Amino acid sequence: MYLHPEAAGAGSPSRDVLLVSAIITVSLSATIVLCGICQWCQRKMGKRYKTSLETVGTPDSSRGRSEKKTIKLPAGGKAVNTAPVPGQPPHDESDRKTEPHSSVSDLVNSLTSEMLMLSPGSEDDEGHEGVSRENLGRIQFSVGYNFQESTLTVKIMKAQELPAKDFSGTSDPFVKIYLLPDKKHKLETKVKRKNLNPHWNETFLFEGFPYEKVVQRVLYLQVLDYDRFSRNDPIGEVSIPLNKVDLTQMQTFWKDLKPCSDGSGSRGELLLSLCYNPSANSIVVNIIKARNLKAMDIGGTSDPYVKVWLMYKDKRVEKKKTVVMKRCLNPVFNESFAFDIPTERLRETTIVITVMDKDRLSRNDVIGKIYLSWKSGPGEVKHWKDMIARPRQAVAQWHQLKA
């Protein structure tokens, strides 16, 4: 109701005062309601995120037995693999508890990132340009020097998140220990069967090794997948110059594994696409092109071609191959191959792609391989899941060739 200023009494509020009072009342009410909603959302989302953190699994806790091994070193010392010391568990940085995010904005950002990574159509920046860096896992070890006994101690504790190298979706890892530049004398841990989070807990003693020679060496650890009937597959490596380590006491390290320098990281890349047709029960593999292939011939080049094997339950079912490209390290193939695969067999199916170098007078050389399935390495699994999530579409991805 509008009142003329002259008609209003001396104690009656003006129109402007009434309007401002109404605005203030509505604003306070809205603020109280929004605060209540935010607090309720924070409690609910925080509780949900905390629960998800508490359900995260832990690595296999099995420990490996050790045995004594002794070798003569050029420095005049010897290396011994000793049993673990009872009552002295290794320091494990992974046992630290993870606190849940207390901020709603941090939680939303975290969940958004996870959704983007799990989205079938999402790709990281590296994926658009080439192959994304593959996670090779990490290894925990300790190193120290006893000046009174002139003994270098290296303890191999465990590894985590190793990639699968076998058709069964797992690996049989073990570790080789070198003191570079000496490559002739090495020590090895035991093989841990079918384990991507192995625990070795084995100690190696390099006895009678003068300190002035120890600091001139590089501790080199190579993690491999043991294969009974073929060459062991390299998984990753770690090297640490001993002159950069405080050897007066045992130092424990967690190190990410890097591609092995023996060639597994420089074999080249292959671009291929997968297309899954559920109604036709088929997968079409298109071998598009390769780049930076390893030169296998004396002339500094190769004659590459590609073999594609369809495997079911570790058994070879069908093979296809491309034509040979003469003297070329960046060949373009553009050849497609169709394989009949019933939907119920997808989980037990593996597509093995091998890039070969053709030799007329000798045996053909393997340049590198790729294993595609739902249980291979991270990059291969991503391609496989993208193919299933986008039926009847050709999904292309670069892959690093492996030994």
TrEMBL record:
Biased composition (Polar residues): 52-61
KW Calcium (keyword) present: yes
Record-linked CDD domains: C2A_Synaptotagmin-7, C2B_Synaptotagmin-7
Domain C2: 135-255, 266-399
UniProt-listed GO biological process terms: calcium ion regulated lysosome exocytosis; calcium ion-regulated exocytosis of neurotransmitter; plasma membrane repair; positive regulation of transport; regulation of calcium ion-dependent exocytosis; regulation of endocytosis; regulation of insulin secretion; vesicle fusion
A single Gene Ontology CC term: synaptic vesicle membrane
Region spans: Disordered: 52-106
Gene Ontology molecular function, alphabetical: calcium ion binding; calcium-dependent phospholipid binding; calmodulin binding; clathrin binding; phosphatidylserine binding; SNARE binding
Topology versus the membrane: Single-pass membrane protein
Transmembrane spans: 20-41
Localization annotation: Cytoplasmic vesicle, Phagosome membrane; Cytoplasmic vesicle, Secretory vesicle, Synaptic vesicle membrane; Lysosome membrane; Peroxisome membrane
Main location: membrane
Pfam families, per the entry: C2 (PF00168)
Subunit comment: Homodimer. Can also form heterodimers with SYT6, SYT9 and SYT10. Interacts with calmodulin (CALM1, CALM2 or CALM3). Interacts with CD63; required for localization to lysosomes. Interacts with APP.
Family statement drawn from the similarity comment of this UniProt entry: Belongs to the synaptotagmin family.
Name of the protein described by the UniProt record: Synaptotagmin-7
Species for this entry: Pipra filicauda
Lineage, uppermost ranks: Eukaryota, Metazoa, Chordata, Craniata, Vertebrata
